[in-house]
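Private note to self, pasted from the team thread so I don't lose it. Backbone tokens:
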């Protein structure tokens, strides 16, 4: 295996006395042996039969490993090159397997941005469609939507808190919520937040907020919800797939 080959070549190179790898902060345990993780060739000891610059002292610290490749024999160059490639591969894997959803932005920012833009556009170019609706009906509908949305989002947050998992998608999900409000919708916080925004639009006659909710919901769906689902499916596997197949994404069969 490649890890065993790297280990053998590093050990051979160290026995030759020409190079010495020293771990700096951490090590990668590949199950075969502890392979030191270092980006630098920290020491260089000239010995008989190995080429090196005449001006090189016996201990050279903090020089890049690749800078010394021309002065090492083929076996040592192979060991260092393999070590570097494995280190870069592991760093790339650790970035791709981050333990939280790869959302494009913190979800409340999407709704808050839509609300701010709607207020500005309403002040500059007010369509006046909602203003023509009866004020009593408009405020009643808006209040019902706001109360329902806040209640739904609060119930979803309480369910996550009881499970001991993180509410924010910028942090790892440690448990899968499937009870309570999550039996009706997989995303009560986003469904509740959408209801609150529509309720605000009715209460304050913000026509632009209703118009801007369409692109905001598209961004929320593809930039947040879809990525969260991919993350949960990778982390919880069949458990989440079964839950996903039985419960609608946003409620109301949607």
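Design output:
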């Amino acid at each position: 295996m490649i890890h065993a080959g790297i280990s053998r070549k590093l050990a051979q190179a160290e026995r030759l006395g020409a190079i010495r790898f020293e771990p700096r902060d951490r090590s990668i345990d590949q199950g075969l042996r502890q392979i030191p993780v270092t980006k630098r060739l920290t020491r260089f000891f000239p010995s008989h039969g190995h080429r090196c610059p005449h001006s090189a002292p016996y201990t050279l610290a903090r020089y890049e490993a690749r800078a010394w490749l021309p002065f090492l024999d083929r076996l040592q160059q192979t060991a260092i090159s393999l070590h570097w490639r494995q280190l870069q591969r592991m760093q790339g894997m650790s970035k791709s397997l981050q333990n939280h959803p790869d959302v494009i932005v913190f979800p409340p920012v999407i709704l808050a941005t839509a609300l701010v833009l709607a207020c500005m556009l309403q002040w500059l170019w007010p369509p006046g469609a909602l203003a023509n609706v009866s004020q009593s009906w408009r405020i009643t509908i808006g209040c019902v939507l706001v109360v329902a949305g806040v209640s739904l989002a609060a119930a979803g947050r309480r369910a996550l808190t009881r499970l001991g998992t993180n509410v924010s998608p910028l942090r790892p999900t440690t448990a899968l919520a499937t009870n309570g409000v999550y039996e009706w919708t997989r995303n009560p916080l986003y469904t509740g937040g959408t209801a609150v925004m529509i309720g605000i639009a009715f209460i304050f006659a913000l026509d632009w907020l209703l118009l801007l909710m369409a692109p905001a919901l598209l961004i929320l769906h593809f930039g947040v919800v879809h990525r969260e689902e991919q993350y949960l499916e990778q982390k919880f596997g069949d458990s989440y797939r079964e839950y996903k197949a039985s419960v609608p994404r946003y409620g109301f069969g949607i």
